[in-house]
Amino acid sequence: xxxxxTDAVMVIxxxxxxxxxxxxxxxxxxxPVWAIYPKGRASQxxxxxxRAAMRAKGFKDTKSCAVSGRLTAxxxxxx
Length: 79
What we know:
Distance between the termini: 24 Å
Number of domains: 1
Largest sheet: 4 strands, mixed
Strand content: 25-35%
Shape: globular
């Protein structure tokens, strides 16, 4: 783990809303992004919104996994 962007090989981003996603995209510099966000339809900003925003920025979803009973994660790669 690093807080120095020049050493990073990926971004791990907890996302609760659009501002969190914007910060993750700004930090990514084309690196893979693991978006971690609440599961289910009750989520205000979930899978569909994140996927649409990431694809609009040229990322493709390449892997997903459960994180907990409340959270899921999807990895996005540029290209």
